[in-house]
Amino acid sequence: MAGLPDVPTWQDQGKVFSGLGKPDLRAATLHLLLDVTSSYGDELILAYVVVGALVVSGLWMFFLSKRRTEMPERHPLCKALSQYGLVFCGAGD
Predict the structure, then answer these.
(1) Which element (helix H / strand E) includes 51?
(2) pLDDT digit string (tens) for 61-74?
(3) What is the DSSP letter of 5?
(4) Which residue from 13, 21, 58, 93 has the fewest beta carbons nearer than 10 Å?
(5) Domains identified in the chain, total number
(6) Considering the domain boundaries, does residue 32 fall inside one?
(7) pLDDT range class, residue 1, cuts 50, 70, 90
(8) 71-88 burial, b if ≥16 CB within 10 A, otherwise e?
């Protein structure tokens, strides 16, 4: 079984940031270079929920449009117009 990767040393960090010329960048990213302890999958739960809700709503809209195309008399607009008299909301044959 493979062990944990080697933690970068100050010399390795110096090689990475030597050509950038921004000393604040080195201080701001040190904790990211050394952090090999956590999994980032747990932080994406909200994104999974949002994407799932969008997929479900998209499938529902597809289902409604398909049903209304196949049976136009069930469309809400046709139902609303039918109260004023006989309305043919289907395609002419």
Answers:
(1) helix 45-70
(2) 999 989 888 887 77
(3) P
(4) 93
(5) 1
(6) no
(7) very low
(8) eeeebeebeeeeeeeeee
